[in-house]
Amino acid sequence: MPAAVEVADIFRRHGEAYRRDHAGHLGRVERRVMAAIEACRTARLGGHAERCADCGLIRIAYNSCRNRHCPKCQGASRAEWLAARKAELLPVPYFHLVFTLPSATAEIAFHNNPVVYAILFKAAAETLRTIAANPKHLGAQVGAVAVLHSWGQNLHYHPHVHCIVPGGGPSLDGTRWVACRPGFFLPVRVLSRLFRRLFLGELQAAYVGGRLGFFGELAALARPAAFANRLAALRRQEWVVYAKPPFGGPSPVLAYLGRYTHRVAIANSRLVAAEDGQVAFRWRDWRHHGKAKLMVLAADEFIRRFLLHSLPDGFHRIRHYGFLANRERTDKLALCRRLLAAAAPASGRDPDPPPRPSTPAASETCPCCGGAMVRLGIVPRPASCRPWRDTS
After folding, report:
1. What is the side-by-side strand order in the sheet with 157-166?
2. What's this model's pTM, rounded to 2 decimal places?
3. What is the pLDDT averaged over residues 188-197?
């Protein structure tokens, strides 16, 4: 049986050639992502030596890079984040909505990531707030956890926001809980049209304010007339807001959230092979009812597609809105529970949590006999390997 393939293996084998061939087009963020993934759980990051208390096996456990783009480093971050969210769950159905940008807008986003991603978040949140507040549809305040993804299954650039939303909220005057209709949250056609209008309004404002740049094939959009024509075409186009069937209650929400909040462009489990300068991976073609397919790309193209989804420095891909917004969350959730006559769930957080481990939990168990591994000492990181900062 062939050894499992990882993104790190592909970067280590082909990364140097990719950096050389794309030296003039590779930014600092992309270089740092590559360096982090290549160094993850290797001697370059140091680690510690440990011995099995039962069979005496001695091994070195190397540290993780903790980069948010690394497929191997999301487990601990996901567990910590989900533990914090456990105390925020309400005993109501939850809905999953997806706000997607059409391809003509995604092209602009590709060259203006921080600006357009922020507009995407803002427009999606304002759309939910406005339509939910309308008595014709719900007449309530709502909350949402929004997560940015920029990829499709084939690793092409496809920016969209996933929103997990409780099915109801406090009335506008805060005196009662307003529940949505069973199995139905808000009308997606109404959501999509307001989302389109709000997004394009913000995009126009960013253009007028000189916050957008256009390069290569999009250089013509720097002319006001050309940009106006692009916006006019986008206003005529139907935008996609997708609502998935609701959860049966809050219990499955945490597991479901974990699939989205700390996902990277491609998981190692989807990789099939990496040989002869090519990478094969599994993907699902949603245009053909989610049919499972195999895609084979040149290693250079695989790396290019992976790096398309590197997030700008300091950009937060998980955001909270409405009564789940950070500033008001505690008071608003207390109000929600009073209106629902529901007790607060036990917090998933330890009041005095242990330090976050830099190695996987599996390193605590002997691979030979299952015994406990006892730490012997630190293996220092080479002086030539500098740590890097990464912001979720």
Report:
1. 241-244, 94-100, 157-166, 143-151, 318-322
2. 0.86
3. 97
